[in-house]
Structures are given as C-alpha cells and as structure tokens.
UniProtKB/TrEMBL annotation:
Domain HTH gntR-type: 12-80
One biological process term in Gene Ontology: negative regulation of DNA-templated transcription
Protein name, UniProt field: GntR family transcriptional regulator
SMART domains: HTH_GNTR, UTRA
Source organism superkingdom: Bacteria
Pfam families for the chain: GntR, UTRA
CDD domains recorded: WHTH_GntR
Aminoacyl-tRNA synthetase listed as a keyword: no
Naturally occurring in which organism (per UniProt): Kribbella antibiotica
Keywords for the protein's UniProt record, in alphabetical order: DNA-binding, Transcription, Transcription regulation
Length: 264
C-alpha cells in the first residue's frame, strides 16, 4: 500500500492526520475488516512519526469503534458484518410465515446463525416508561422475559420483553424456557394478534453490565429500541426493550405512498 506523506507544517496535528488517513482507508475498504494494522514500529518507520503520534492516532480510532487492540497480538480493523433490521407494516409476517422469532429469520437472511440464552423470567414492577407504553400504573406487576440474543455465538442483543398480567399471567409466557416460536407467535396463539406497532430508538454508550453482556470493545455504542405491539382496538400487548450492539446492526425503515405496496 502506497504511503501518504504527513505534513508537519499543517495546522492539523500529525496524530489527527494519521487517524484521518487510516479512517479513510478503512472506510474505502483498502484496509479490510479483520485485517491487522502495522505495528507501532512499522508506523514510525513508514510515516516518520513518533510512537506517541501513532498511539494517539490509534487510540482515536479505537474510541470511534473502527479498530480494536488485542493485547499481545496488535491492532485490527473491526469486523462489522451488520444484520439489517427492517421496520415495516409487514414485520409480523416474518414470524407468521417461518414460525420462528423475527430475530432468527432476519439473521438467517444474512447468513448468520442465531441463538439465545435466557437471562430470567419473572414478575416485577414495571418501570415508569414501560408502564406508560403499556397504559398501566407505574410499579404495577408485569411479566418480564430477559434474554441474550447471539449471532454466530457472539452476543448481539440484550432483550427484555414486558407483558401485562391480563395477557401473560399463568401462560407459556411465564415459562423459564426459551420459546421456540418466539413470544410474538405465542401471544397470537393466545388469541391476541398484533395489528400495528410503533418503535422508538435512542443511541447511547453502554453501562458496564451491558458492555460485559454484549462483550463490547471500547468505543462501541448501543441502540435501544422499544417495540410496542397493539391490537386492532389499540390495546398494548407488549413492550420489547431491545439493546443492540451498534456495530452488528443497521436499521432500515420502509414506507409506501397511498396506494403503493412494498416488494414481496
């Protein structure tokens, strides 16, 4: 790879110039995902800069989530094969057609292997924001299913689903085992098909526990998605509170004009 000469007379520091150069190469694909970057000594020799400059440049890219440092092995371009999550009016058709959770169907479309680990199933007081979406009193008991969803055995999503007791109490939704068809199918099997829904997104940095569960490297944010399902009579059925590792997902939203229809 040809080397770009850094300009010591520029008003941009050498570390910023080197970080900009590497960022451009990574995004252009000339430094491929998973590839190892040169050692600090090689960067020094190739660009005529000090080790401090190299470390500052690499640290900046680590914080941006573009590269990861592996102790004893070096620095690598982060592998970022995203799973695309498509929001559309036909979202629930996925689980109805495949008889599998939507997460599993979307993962398979992208050639990934989905799995999950149950973190707990319990009755507990609803947090204030969840209660508002469920249209119940804050602190009222709900059934909560928590699970860690994985792609190719790597943590990808922390999921917590909240169900009102009138719907979930004493049903399979309180089972401590994984639901093979997924909770959406079980809700409909109980006689409550989802007619429409809404989704709310917010990006932020993870807390220590979230970072541990998702095995996140430094600089990787999370995206919190609340997905609320409703019946035809506008009664809320569930709030799915999903926390996505942002480097493993991208989100697409589908819309149609009046009379239009999305592709099959």
């Amino acid at each position: 790879m040809s080397r770009t000469v850094l300009d010591p007379t520029s008003d941009r520091s050498l570390a910023v110039q080197l970080a900009d150069l590497l960022r451009t190469e990574i995004r252009a694909g000339s430094r491929s995902q998973g590839s190892q970057l040169p050692s600090e000594r090689e960067f020094e020799n190739d660009y005529g800069v000090s080790r401090t400059v190299v470390r500052d440049a690499l640290d900046a890219l680590v914080l941006e989530g573009l590269v990861v440092k592996r102790k004893g092995f070096g620095t690598f371009v982060r592998q970022q094969p995203p799973v695309r999550r498509v929001s559309s009016r036909s979202r629930h058709d996925l689980h109805r057609t495949a008889n599998k959770p939507v997460f599993d169907v979307e993962a398979a479309i992208h050639g990934r292997v989905p799995s999950r680990r149950i973190l707990g199933v319990s009755r507990e007081p609803a947090p204030t924001d969840i209660a508002q979406w469920l249209e119940i009193e804050a602190g009222a008991d709900v059934v909560v299913r928590r699970r860690l969803q994985l792609l190719d055995d790597q943590p990808a999503v922390i999921s917590a689903s909240y169900y009102p007791l009138w719907l979930a109490g004493g049903t399979i939704l309180e089972s401590p085992d994984a639901l093979k068809r997924g909770p959406d199918a079980e809700i409909e099997a109980l006689g409550h098909p989802a007619a429409w829904g809404t989704e709310v997104f917010r990006a932020r940095m993870p807390d220590p526990q979230e970072r541990r569960l998702l095995a996140l490297d430094a600089g990787v944010p999370v995206v919190r998605m609340l997905h609320i399902d409703y019946t035809e009579s506008n009664c809320p059925l569930q709030v799915a509170d999903d926390l996505y590792a942002a480097d493993q997902h991208e989100f697409a939203f589908m819309w149609t004009s009046e009379g239009g229809s999305p592709p099959a």
